[in-house]
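Researcher: Here's a chain I'd like modeled. Treat it as a single chain, no partners, no ligands.
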Amino acid sequence: MVLHENQYQTLDKLKLATYDKTMLKYYENRPVRAPFTVKKVKGWSDHIHDHLQRSIQPQMMDYLNKQGYAIK
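Model: Modeled as a single isolated chain. Structure tokens:
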């Protein structure tokens, strides 16, 4: 799935769901190595969502909303 190539493509929710299922299967079947003793299996979208929730620049979403680039 290509998300960006000189311009963003329209979101295809079916392709994204298919990609999430593929990544979930991969994450479920990959070996877990120390120090990661707790296996947390998530799809790609959930992983990215969690990552963005921990952003080191929490004010960025407000900035993007003010500029008209993002919608909460």
